[in-house]
Amino acid sequence: MDRIIDGKAVAARVKEEIKNKIEERGIKPVLAVILVGDDPASTVYVNNKKKACEFCGIGSKSYELPSETTEEELLKLIDRLNKDKEINGILVQLPVPKHIDPDKVIEAISPTKDVDGFSTQSAGALMVGKKGFVPCTPAGVIELLHSYNVEISGKNCVVMGRSNIVGKPMAMLMLRENATVTVTHTKTKDIKEITKRADILIAAVGKPRMIDQSYIKDGAVIIDVGIHRLDPAENNGKKLCGDVDYDSVYDKASLITPVPGGVGPMTIAMLMKNTLSAYDMQNKSQG
Q: What are the structural domains, with CATH classification, of the chain?
């Protein structure tokens, strides 16, 4: 039995659907991407987002700023993009340099253009079940589960991690899907006793290969949100790994996302979906 959840294939389908909708309607949503500094991983992510925009028929405007850019200069650029009616979505690639407050940056983006779904308004809408932008990685996880017909309602779900970007919104989305949700974190006691009860385990702990087979029960669905770059000599010849020790867990899981090729491609696909939604919201048209 193939246990692998193919995020590349699902992401390709989502992007194809978005491309078709945009072509059929003859529209041109536009996404502005801001990158401050030259962090290599961030540069790769930004380039991947540009490629996805090109494929889907979404206009892409890139603002690549030097690392010494001041917080005031960045906020002025965001303000200008907020007022620009041609721009439908604004994304600031995180992390930003240490002299810039990321919370100020996130809150400066207009809620109608917050395609990352990180603002307080977006978080509040998700919390109370109102319509709004959902952070792309958690939204991508839900899309993967639906694509593989994973039953969520009534199931025990454990989300490992409580970040504002993944853990907390992931827990809210699973609640929305009628799962019974537990969130574990650095202060959780007897963590394995909790995770071993999970029908669906979502790992977003930020520690390479932390979750081995001792954390999971037989037949669990394992979603690995982590991504880490390691020396291939220490990682079975592979450059990348996740929070889950894939080889240890594979035979115990009913379904599992690989790293790379699992959750990662979905994050960008859902960004494209949010950008189209932003266009529709601003133009009051229907997708």
A: 22-116 (3.40.50.10860), 136-263 (3.40.50.720)
